[in-house]
Every structure is written in structure tokens, then in C-alpha cells.
């Protein structure tokens, strides 16, 4: 039977170089805290327990992450990585294998971690190492004459020969909990930083003849940590490039894979085309053949097949039906539900409204808290006056109605099926079906009227 898996995430460190009031691991990468990425990788391994060691930033961390299934262990003061794991030890199952992760190393692939868990389940110690062109700052992996891992020496404690080693400790390791607990009790802080180093566990294990198997990430970015805004920005680009590559591989056209940002999940059908500068947040689904124009922002949106979104649209909490055409410059707010073949044009704002099949709102309108039927035409500059200063009211526009330009519909109000409103109507009572309703002052002309003339100085 497989040993259970316990994950310990170290996240107590300060993150001074971020120069921020926000704890480092709460800084967002692709719209989610760094720590949330690490927890997602942990979750994918289906661990029995996840324990997060926190300290700097205090309760802000558990509060922001808000997960009751996690064991939050406070480390105060922070006396090193070994001391951090000592705080977690009483909460671990001695029969488990323990995977140690860092809260500021967000992009480790689950496959890499899974391989390490398998090794530890066979009783060995899996240590994630990598060779770096510039290993400075990192702990170095010291191997014996037979190439076996003997110990880890921290940069600040290393001899010149050891500093020349370019294989470094990533900090990520996986090992049987029972053995780890024994070694943790023997850690001392007699080193350059007066810290309890978790890395000393490796030396103890080697001395006892334990098998230590170095594992390596498929790509260097898997083990890169965030210590500065610069590194955070670099990892954001790595993350976005990975998403773009996977979309291209699925058959999505990206006019420039370097100019796409996905901060959530983006699901695409066949032959989707995404122009440059688009941002996708939350859960976005794009149906077959959908096109998204340049510099559009979509958050929690479901787009059916054949929809065309023209450039510069801002769309949130909206469902868009088949073959609809949106924008340019449309703003669709939460609760918008557009049926198939609708046309929503420039400078149109829609909120909490249903718009029926093939209806058109092409220019400069505000439609809020409305039900719009099928084949309705809403003229330029139409406004639903949904708010009386205290309450919101609904507007109903039935099938095939025609709303003349520059009309105001003062809700609650209904425009009947097939009704026509003359341009400039201020509708305060229901418009009957099939009839023309207008509320316009009759046009008149004053014959012979003269424009006033400018008075010239000296005259009069
Ligand atoms: C550590 C490793 C080093 C490795 C490097 C990789 C040790 C002694 N050294 O060094 O071999 O090459 O990571 O980045 O383990 N943390 C706590 N509590 C503490 C101290 C740290 O939770 O008391 C957390 C930090 O928040 C961070 C992680 O542990 O997520 C690593 O801490 P950091 O100070 O960055 O370790 P390094 O000294 O860089
Ligand atoms: Ca570090």
C-alpha cells in the first residue's frame, strides 16, 4: 500500500526585496497569489495533509488564502528552513512521505513532484537539484568520489572549491516522515547564518547510508523562486508563454503569442482566433470559430461558436450566443445574456439584461435591467432609465419592437410586441403593441425670424 503524502509549504520568510506591505507569497502571478500556485501543484498530488508554515505578514496569509483544509503553522521567530519544518513536524503523519515545497517557487510542474513522491514511497530521499550557469547564493550539492550526494553546503559556509560547484539545491525534497523527524531533532545552528538548516538533513541521511536520489526539473523555470519584482515579472512571462504555447498546440490562432495574458482558465474550441493584447480572467470559454479582437478584456465569459468580438471590448459575467457580433468598444457587464446573432455595437453598455435572437443595439446606448425580445432594433443613444435614485426597475421590450434613436425608457415600463417609438421619445407609460408611440414636441417654424446680430462698439 502507498504511504500517505503530507506536503509542507515553507512560507514564513520576509521577502524584503519585494519592498511591499503585502507578504511575498500573496503577490499575484497570473492573477493568483504565488502561494495559490504552489497549493494547486500540491493539490494535484492528492495529499492527505497540507501544512503551510507562515510567519511574516501574520494572519494576513491564512485569511487571504482562506482554506480550512490546510494546517496553518506559525513560525515565530524564523530561525531557518530546518526550524520551519520542525514547527510542522508535530502535525505530520510519521507513516507518510513528506514533500517540502517553497511558497515562493510557483511553477514546479506536478509531473516533477510526482516522480519525487514515487521515489520517497520506495524509502529513498528525492532531492530536486539543477545545474545553473550562475549558482551564487544557492546551497551547493556536494557529491562523493562515486558521484553520490554527500551533503549540501550553503553559499555562505562554502569553501572556494565548493563555491565552484554549479549543481544547486532547489530546496524541494521528498522523504519518509519518520526518518525526517529523527534528523530534525538533531539540527544545530552552528553555521555562518546561525540558522537551523533543513539542508543539514541530507548530510545526516548520507552518513547513515540512506539512498539520496537527485531529480531534475524538465525546465529551469520550474525551480525559480521569487525574491524581487523583477523575478516575479520574469516568471509571469514564463507562465504566459507556457499558456500561449499550449493554446497554439491545441489549434488556437494567436496573432502574437507574446501578447496574450490569461489570468484564470481559457478554454477554446476549434479555429479560435485571438488578436494581440487580450486579457482573459476567471473562467472564459470560446466556442468554435470565435474571434476576439485586439485589446479586449474578458472575465468569466461564455462565448458560443462563430461569435466575433471586435477590438477594445470589456466583457464580464456575460454569455454570448452563436454568431453574435460585439464591439468595437462594447462594455458588457455581469448578468448580460445575449442570444444568437445579436449585434452589439460601439459605445454600448449592457448590464443584467437578456437580449433575444437577432436583436440589434448598434450605437451609444445603455441597457440595464432589461428584457429585450427577438428581432428588436434599438436606435442610437437609447437609454433605459433603470434607477430612480433608490431602486432599480425593469424595462421590457417585446419582440420586433423598434426603438427610435435618442429615446429614454423610464422603468418600470414595457414596449409591446412590434411597437415603434419615435426618435427622441421619453417613455413613461407602456407603449402598446404594434402602434407608433412618441412623446415629442410638434415641430414648428417661426417665419422671418432673424438671428441676433453682434453689437459693434461705438454704435447704439
Ligand atoms: C534555501 C536553501 C538553499 C537553496 C535555496 C533555494 C537552506 C538552509 N538553504 O536557501 O540550499 O539553494 O533555498 O532557493 O534550506 N523559510 C521559512 N522560515 C525560515 C526561513 C525560510 O519559512 O525560517 C522559507 C522562506 O519563506 C522560503 C524558503 O523557506 O520560502 C527558503 O528560504 P530562503 O531564506 O529563501 O532560503 P535560502 O537561504 O535562499
Ligand atoms: Ca530564496
Provide a descriptive summary of the structure in words.
The strands form 6 sheets. Strands 13, 15, 17, 19, 21, 22, 24, 25, 27, 28, 31 and 34 form a 12-stranded parallel beta sheet that branches. An 11-stranded parallel beta sheet has the order 12-14-16-18-20-23-26-29-32-35-37, with helices on one face. It has a 7-stranded mixed beta sheet with strand order 5-4-1-6-10-7-11, sandwiched between helices. It folds into 2 domains: 5-223, Alpha-Beta Complex (Spore Coat Polysaccharide Biosynthesis Protein SpsA, Chain A); 229-437, Hexapeptide repeat proteins (UDP N-Acetylglucosamine Acyltransferase, domain 1, 3 Solenoid). It contains 8 helices and 37 strands. It has 460 residues and is an alpha/beta fold. It is elongated. Helix 2 links the parallel strand 4 and strand 5. The chain starts with a strand and ends in a 23-residue tail after the last strand. Bound molecules: uridine-diphosphate-N-acetylglucosamine and calcium ion. Calcium ion binds next to loops. The site of calcium ion has 2 residues, from loops.
Q: TL;DR?
A:
By secondary structure, the protein is an alpha/beta fold. It contains eight helices and 37 strands. The strands form six sheets. Strands 13, 15, 17, 19, 21, 22, 24, 25, 27, 28, 31 and 34 form a twelve-stranded parallel sheet that branches.
Amino acid at each position: 500500500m502507498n504511504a500517505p503524502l503530507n506536503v509542507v509549504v515553507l512560507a514564513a520568510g520576509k521577502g524584503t526585496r519585494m519592498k511591499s506591505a503585502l507578504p511575498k507569497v500573496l503577490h499575484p502571478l497570473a492573477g493568483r497569489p504565488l502561494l495559490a500556485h504552489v497549493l494547486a501543484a500540491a493539490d494535484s498530488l492528492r495529499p492527505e495533509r497540507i501544512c503551510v508554515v507562515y510567519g511574516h505578514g501574520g494572519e494576513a496569509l491564512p485569511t487571504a488564502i482562506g482554506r480550512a483544509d490546510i494546517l496553518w503553522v506559525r513560525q515565530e521567530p524564523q530561525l531557518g528552513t530546518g526550524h520551519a519544518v520542525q514547527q510542522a513536524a508535530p502535525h505530520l503523519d510519521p507513516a507518510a512521505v513528506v514533500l517540502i515545497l517553497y511558497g515562493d517557487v510557483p511553477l514546479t510542474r506536478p509531473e516533477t513532484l510526482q516522480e519525487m513522491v514515487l521515489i520517497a514511497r520506495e524509502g529513498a530521499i528525492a532531492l530536486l537539484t539543477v545545474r545553473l550557469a550562475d549558482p551564487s547564493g544557492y546551497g551547493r550539492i556536494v557529491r562523493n568520489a562515486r558521484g553520490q550526494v554527500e551533503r549540501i553546503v550553503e553559499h555562505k559556509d562554502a569553501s572556494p572549491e565548493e563555491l565552484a560547484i554549479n549543481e544547486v539545491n532547489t530546496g524541494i525534497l521528498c522523504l519518509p516522515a519518520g526518518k525526517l523527524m529523527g534528523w530534525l531533532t538533531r539540527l544545530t545552528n552552528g553555521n555562518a547564518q546561525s540558522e537551523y538548516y533543513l539542508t543539514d538533513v541530507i548530510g545526516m541521511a548520507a552518513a547513515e547510508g540512506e539512498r539520496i536520489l537527485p531529480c531534475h526539473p524538465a525546465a529551469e523555470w520550474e525551480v525559480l523562486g521569487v525574491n524581487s519584482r523583477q523575478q516575479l515579472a520574469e516568471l509571469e512571462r514564463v507562465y504566459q508563454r507556457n499558456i500561449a504555447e499550449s493554446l497554439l498546440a491545441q489549434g488556437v490562432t494567436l496573432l502574437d503569442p507574446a501578447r496574450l495574458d490569461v489570468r484564470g482558465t481559457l478554454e477554446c474550441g476549434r479555429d479560435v482566433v485571438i488578436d494581440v493584447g487580450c486579457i482573459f480572467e476567471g473562467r472564459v470559454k470560446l466556442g468554435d470559430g470565435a474571434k476576439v479582437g485586439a485589446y479586449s478584456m474578458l472575465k468569466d465569459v461564455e462565448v458560443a461558436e462563430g461569435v466575433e468580438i471586435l477590438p477594445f471590448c470589456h466583457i464580464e459575467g456575460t454569455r454570448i450566443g452563436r454568431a453574435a457580433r460585439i464591439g468595437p468598444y462594447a462594455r458588457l457587464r455581469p448578468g448580460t445574456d445575449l442570444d444568437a446573432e445579436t449585434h452589439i455595437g460601439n459605445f454600448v453598455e449592457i448590464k443584467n439584461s437578456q437580449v433575444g435572437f437577432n436583436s440589434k443595439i448598434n450605437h451609444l446606448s445603455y441597457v440595464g435591467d432589461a428584457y429585450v425580445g427577438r428581432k428588436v432594433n434599438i436606435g442610437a443613444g437609447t437609454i433605459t432609465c433603470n434607477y430612480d435614485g433608490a431602486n432599480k426597475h425593469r424595462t421590457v421590450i417585446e419582440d420586433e419592437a423598434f426603438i427610435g434613436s435618442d429615446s429614454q425608457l423610464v422603468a418600470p415600463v414595457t414596449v409591446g410586441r412590434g411597437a415603434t417609438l419615435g426618435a427622441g421619445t421619453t417613455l413613461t407609460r407602456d407603449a402598446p403593441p404594434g402602434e407608433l408611440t412618441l412623446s415629442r414636441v410638434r415641430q414648428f417654424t417661426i417665419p422671418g425670424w432673424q438671428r441676433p446680430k453682434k453689437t459693434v462698439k461705438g454704435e447704439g
